[in-house]
Design a protein that fits this description.
Elements lengths: L2 H17 L16 H7 L2 H29 L8 H10 L2 H14 L15 H27 L5 E3 L4 H33 L2 H14 L9 H21 L3 H17 L14 E3 L20 H19 L14
Helix pairs in contact: 3-5, 3-7, 4-7, 5-7, 6-10, 7-8, 7-10, 8-9, 9-10, 9-11
Length: 330
Amino acid sequence: MNENEIKETEETATGPAETADVNDGGSAPVKKEMSPLMKKLAGGVITTWLIGYALMMLGSIVGAIVTEVPLHALGLLTDDHPVIITAVTYLEFIGIWGAVLVFILGFKGEMPFLRRVLGKLNVKAFIGFILGLVIVGGLNAVCIFFAKNNGDIYLSFAGFEIIPFIVLFISVFIQSGAEELICRGVVYRRIENTYNPIVATVFNSLLFTVLHLMNPGVTLLSLLNIFLCGVLFSLVIYYTDSMAFAMAGHAGWNFCQSILFGLPNSGQVFPYSIFKLDASNARDSFFYNVGFGVEGTAFAVIILAVACVVIIVLGQLKVIKKPADVKPLI
């Protein structure tokens, strides 16, 4: 072997491995890719739960300060202002939007999957928004219809005003959208990126359930309903890759039962609603739960379970077409 051949052999043996770490001062250093183990740890379920819970708590504190302090100083948080009291309870969740957006902006370089949390604002997203609002809000209305038809609840018309209607819809959307940003946005996306959509669906829905453990009137049946809501919205996001349907569906469900018909929203009854519930005559049944409303019943479990199955069937038949780059279920 001559001298030139020896030199070429040495360069071939050492070139790629060594030049990867060389910085000649004129180019940016090569960034080392995260190892599979570190990726698992960084996107693990417990870590992600802690991040989601921290964002929820931090955002809630900030939101409460921003909304309640000025209104309290103005003397508006009294029984004389039922619309304001109802609206501010939902508007406090605006702090969670801020916390999630800061998290996305702060980590977008390290965790590119978070860019998919909000999705694209386009015609498809708008259609998904309308469908979510109508379909999921309609499912809640079906539950209310059967509860009323069965004689479990008695409702009376209290009045309709367009300004409170619009303000309260926006307020409910802010609250519902915030929970979706945490559970089906950050938590679902982060776990999906590390494992697969089934693991992401189960564990973001479990966190969603845990966040409601301290709600008034909560029962095992109502927790099952909340878990199934999480599964339903996760399935929609898996097949559409859009937050629009989930956010609007969540808002439609909450707005229908609390603002339209005055029923408990996850156990909480608000001072303002278009219809008023005669709570003294309400009774527990297959269709209604006195402490938690229609979403704490066996009937709601069936409705939500059927909705989940329908989404899966439509997805598998490609009636709902998921994007090509979305991971398979398993």
